[in-house]
Amino acid sequence: MPKLKVLMLNHEFPPVGGGASPLTFELCAELVKQGHLVDVVTMHYKKTARFEIVQGINIYRTAALRKRPDICHPHELATYLPGAFFKTLSLAGKNKYDIIHCHFVVPGAPLAWLISRLTGIPFIVTCHGSDVPGHNPDRFIVLHKIIKPLWNFFSKRAALIIAPSEFLRQKILQANKSLRVEVVPNGVDITRFVRENKTKSVLLCSRMLKFKGIQYFIEAVRDLEVDWKFNIVGDGPYLPELKIMAENSRTPIRFWGWLDKNSKEYIELFSKSSVFVFPSQAENFPTVLLEALSAGMAIITSDAGGCPEVVGDAGLYVQPADAAGIRSSLLTLINDEKLRFNLQMQSLERAKKYAWNLIAERYTEVYRSIIG
Asked: What class does CATH assign to 201-353?
């Protein structure tokens, strides 16, 4: 079949951004491996290159304002659009793309729609949760109310909306039942972690936000005395308060802060940790759970949102905000080596269904269905 020319739009792209940033990169890299042309237009940040080619991906970074690598505030999002518009229009005129693939309705869909109107190239949008009204109401309820009319306008004009989970698909349809929405899961690099020499260690990795539930893990373990190590990776506004909570923990809790996903420390923590805990109260299809699967960890996660869709039978489930449930599940895995090992093996097996070559092929099918 003929190879495709894909224009990928995401304001977040490595080395900056949250979960959608590495997901976009991995999808692009796999599409290039499969022979397609992929150009990315993203937000410039500090000393990142304005243009570079990484693993065959042409990456264009346009002028924007952003203070931190891990969080982008609404007023910073808006600065992506002016510079990205002119670069995107120029590229679209030169390369005659088959499709525009935009990540996030805000801020990317307005850009994708305008370029589509001017060039006739169809566009699709992958939603990632924060851009869907009703998702994470403790963080975005006011913002979602403000942007709802614009959200409806641009979502209706996409040829297709992609949701990584059935949970998010239903959230999108609750916001606007007239939209055409399909589920394509996020992918994971199943070769990235060593998955050997597991140690007596428990890992948490997340943005430090209240709804992520890290405080309930700290409450669950701070009076435990076990010969296990507890590691927490991530940064965010809730981090100082979490550190105070953990000060008197009988088993020390180490906070690593923000780590580059390609750093030695990040790779080693995932490769060597035996148990992964993710007690979030509101999630779409979290990348970090996919990484925990591919690293062969036994998982404890909440039964909220899309977490069960990711983990399946490879983990133990607790209700949101349930410190006692986290404690009970953690002690079960610490004390039951056989169960822990069996869940680790199920994690490795389940990760295979999310291998990037399979996910990229699914996206290619979507592209062709829109073009054709």
From this structure: alpha beta
